[in-house]
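The protein record passed on below.

***
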Amino acid sequence: MGAVASWVQALGVGLPTLFLAVVTWLAARLAAQGQLSIGELVAVYGYVAVLIGPVAFFVQMVYELSRGVVAARRVVALLRLEPAPDGGELDAPAEPAVLHDPDSGCGWCRGG
């Protein structure tokens, strides 16, 4: 699980940063060719830099949502378990009795 978590966190930070680098590089090439002004280059960088936070948030949200779904399925599976049927081989004691486990020989109330 740790390997998956580290990959998801790396992608959550790495992909938006890579996107910022690629868009800034492309915008810088356009500015060098004269198709973009320096102000437009700064604006492109600003827009993309602002988008890093929400994109990283959505990547992390998808990861946490998938973990939540898996956990919910496990809880539902646990809650659907049926108890083992009681054979009812012994009658209940008529009066208070000493707590004793015959399989292990443990008698907690007797100090044994």
Observations:
- Helices lie at 2-33, 38-79.
- The chain has a mean pLDDT of 82.
